[in-house]
Amino acid sequence: MVGQLFFGWLGNKMGRKRIYGVTLKLMVVCSLASGLSFHHNPESVMATLCFFRFWLGFGFGGDYPLSATIMSEYANKRTRGAFIAAVFAMQGLGNLAAGIAVVIISARFKNSPAYQTDPSGQADYVWRIVLMFGAIPALLTCYWRMKMPETARYTALIAKNLKQAASDMSSASTLTS
């Protein structure tokens, strides 16, 4: 909730596209860092894992309102509901894909010769790889999102740049058609 409030407010001040990029980069870094949690002893692994997972959740909190706002500002009245529903329907597909990835990675390691000699060491790799895979959707989203212009509504109403808003609206209309 704190991430939603903070990044929603910041998106209104600095631009949705810019802050959405910040939240995505935060999610990528924290997903990768979660898998690379320091492992001198179990306590340090848990401490660093909790630290990076907290900041990952903070970034996800910012992603929710910005995703909904960006989609609603790009869509016209007729398609707005479908666009927002599509954004949040992707969460279910992401959860399904994550479950499939866990099963595949677990099966791959369980069938490896190294698992037979050191099962706990191999299990350590599995959860780390699974957590780091979470960076892939955020990286893909970051790439596609950064290619889109700032929403015309933000540019016109908050940044007060009507000429740029008209230009952004014409380029965005080709993206949403």
Summarize the structure in short.
By secondary structure, this protein is mostly helical. It has helices spanning 2-14, 16-35, 42-74, 80-110, 113-117, 119-133, 135-147, 152-157, 162-176.
Q: Any overview of this molecule?
A:
By secondary structure, the chain is mainly alpha-helical. The protein has a single domain (2-171), classed as MFS general substrate transporter like domains (Growth Hormone, Chain: A), CATH 1.20.1250. Helices cover 85% and strands 0% of the residues. It is built from nine helices and no strands. It has helices at 2-14, 16-35, 42-74, 80-110, 113-117, 119-133, 135-147, 152-157, 162-176. Helix 4 packs antiparallel against helix 6. It is elongated and about 65 Å long. This is H(+)/Pi cotransporter. The chain crosses the membrane at residues 19-38, 82-105, 125-144.
